TrEMBL record:
Name recorded for this polypeptide: Zinc finger, C2H
UniProt keyword terms in alphabetical order: Metal-binding, Zinc, Zinc-finger
Transmembrane segments: none
Compositional bias ranges of the Low complexity kind: 11-21
Domain BED-type: 22-83
Annotated region described as Disordered, given as residue ranges: 1-27
Family annotation (Pfam families): zf-BED
InterPro entries: Znf_BED (IPR003656), Znf_C2H2_type (IPR013087)
Molecular function GO terms recorded: DNA binding; zinc ion binding
Source organism superkingdom: Eukaryota
Originating organism: Trema orientale
PROSITE patterns recorded: ZF_BED (PS50808), ZINC_FINGER_C2H2_1 (PS00028)
The organism's taxonomic lineage, starting at the top: Eukaryota, Viridiplantae, Streptophyta, Embryophyta, Tracheophyta
Length: 117
């Protein structure tokens, strides 16, 4: 986790579920949605929390930005290596295994208290 000492207030979107996107996506931990007045309303603009680059075209491109795949988007220069690895891993797995992985981690959480005793 990289914590910047300076807290810059970037005109973040108002709290609340305005657009109702898929907020479970890990990409939201590393970027914020931005609204661009006069832009194409149906596009999601994402601002990278690390390099402040605004990515047009939604979460998919932001993932590629963070994962340094260089697919249709410039790689992030500021993102920590472990985050890059997380997204490289995420993209290589694809979305197929996402639900499975979540179910497995839920099971592990339930088992942990028993093991501690
Ligand atoms: Zn970036």
């Amino acid at each position: 986790m990289v914590r910047s000492s300076k807290r810059s207030c970037i005109g973040a979107a108002p709290s609340g579920s305005s657009s109702g996107g898929n907020r479970k996506d890990p990409v939201w931990k590393h970027s914020v949605e931005v609204e661009v007045p006069g832009g194409k309303k149906h596009y999601v603009y994402l601002e990278c929390k690390y390099c402040k680059k605004v990515i047009k075209g939604g979460v998919k491109r932001m993932k590629h930005h963070l994962a340094h795949t260089k697919k249709n988007v410039a790689p992030c220069k500021e993102v920590p290596e472990d985050v890059t690895n997380e997204f490289v891993d995420y993209l290589s797995k694809g979305t197929k295994n996402k639900h499975l992985a979540q179910a497995q981690s839920d099971e592990r959480l339930i088992q942990v208290p028993i093991l501690i005793m």
